[in-house]
Amino acid sequence: AVERTLSIIKPDAVAKDVIGEIYSRFEKAGLKIVAARMAQLSREDAEGFYAVHKERPFFNDLVGFMISGPVMVQVLEGEDAIRKNREIMGATNPKEAAAGTLRHDYAESIDANAVHGSDAPETAKQEIEYFFKADDICSRS
Ligand code: CMP
Question: pTM to 2 decimals?
Fold first, then answer.
């Protein structure tokens, strides 16, 4: 089915000037960019976005990293978009990410891991709504 998923290009990848390369990977895989904006997240924004991880030991470092510079946030649309985006990203820990995945190619560490992508339809819906109003999304399916 055609799905939408939320993608974030994290501060490390924005700083490396690989937004274009990452967009190109999405587009070549049939994932269309249907909404996008750059943002400098506040601590509150990042804590709210990652609220499910609040009790995890890595939460403070994760939030600190996500506010260390601007991020690029986009909605990707396409057939099987959630799974496809996760395949393009590779494993959360870049040391475990397969060759040819974004995290293998651009990430340095489990925190500075280049990209975020929603993990399931319910979280995709919540995460998209966290960053975009319905009017901001230009469906192309
Ligand atoms: P992301 O997909 O953005 O979701 C939560 C983030 O927490 C994850 O990517 C990692 O960047 C970061 N993180 C740091 N340590 C861990 C860990 N041990 N397990 C999972 N995520 C972690």
Answer: 0.98
Structure-block tokens of residue 100: 């040819």
Gap between the Cα atoms of 36 and 22, Å rounded: 13
Ranges of residues in the chain whose predicted pLDDT is under 70: none
The predicted structure's pLDDT at residue 96: 98
Distance CA 55, CA 87 (A): 27
CB 38 within 8 A of CB 70: yes
What was the pLDDT predicted at 64? 98
Which residue out of 12, 62, 115 has the highest number of ligand 1 atoms within 8 Å of its CB and is therefore the one to mutate?
62
**Which residue blocks in 31-118 are alpha helix, DSSP H?**
43-49, 59-66, 81-89, 102-106
Nearest to 74 by CA among 15, 125, 7: 7
